[in-house]
Amino acid sequence: MLAVGFLLLWSCEKDYVPKPKGYNRFILPAHEYQPLPDTLPYQFEYSKHARLLKDTSWISDRYWVEIYYPQIKANVHVTYKQVNSLDSLKDYLNDAYFLTAKHQIKAYAIDEAISTTPSGKAVVFAELEGEVPSQFQFFTTDSTENFLRGALYFNTRVQNDSLKPAIEYVKIDIVHMMNTLEWTNSDSEKN
């Protein structure tokens, strides 16, 4: 009895420490893919858990699309440009690097990697770390006719460290998109 009384007195003297805030929990589905409609000059497989939307930004172009993930409020903005000359290709490449570099103000790291797809296409991936609006960007070109660029955005105020599982999930889908990319308007290259 004396021990119980001692424990009650001892337990009452402890300061209450609240639990730290928890992170969002994402329950993400298994990766499944479907093809784009054949009305675009490019073709790839995108997630069955995403919706394909027409880009509605004020600067949108005919073949620009958004791949929207409603469950995690993420968008992959995909832009496409026809390469008409070496000068236009240089402009598109400069724009791609400039748009990534704009995030240097908030990014504490921008890791770029060049990857080769199974069909031999070179894709530049840029992973941005920090509280940036776009956490993952990419582009590829055949250097003569086609240029495709994309960027991942989340329509949420949640901090990027909390979004890490969702970012990793969409990155897998983006890599799959690039690994299945084919140019459909080119007679010289059917990859």
Q: Which regions contain 5 or more consecutive residues with pLDDT less than 50?
A: 187-191
Q: What would the CATH topology be?
A: Protein Transport Mog1p, Chain A
The CATH class turns out to be Alpha Beta
Beta-strand level of the residues, as a percent range? 25-35%
Please give the alpha-carbon distance between the first and last residues: 81 Å
**What order do the SSEs take from the amino end to the carboxyl end, as H and E?**
HEEEEEEHEEEEHE
Care to describe what's here?
With 191 residues, the chain is of the alpha+beta class. It has a single domain (42-183), classed as Protein Transport Mog1p, Chain A (3-Layer(aba) Sandwich). The protein is built from 3 helices and 11 strands. It has helices at residues 2-12, 86-101, 160-179; strands spanning 33-35, 42-43, 45-47, 51-54, 65-69, 74-82, 107-116, 122-130, 134-141, 146-154, 182-183. A 7-stranded antiparallel sheet has the order 4-5-6-10-9-8-7, sandwiched between helices. The protein has a two-stranded antiparallel sheet with strand order 1-3. Strands 2-11 form a two-stranded antiparallel sheet. The model is unreliable at 187-191 (pLDDT under 50).
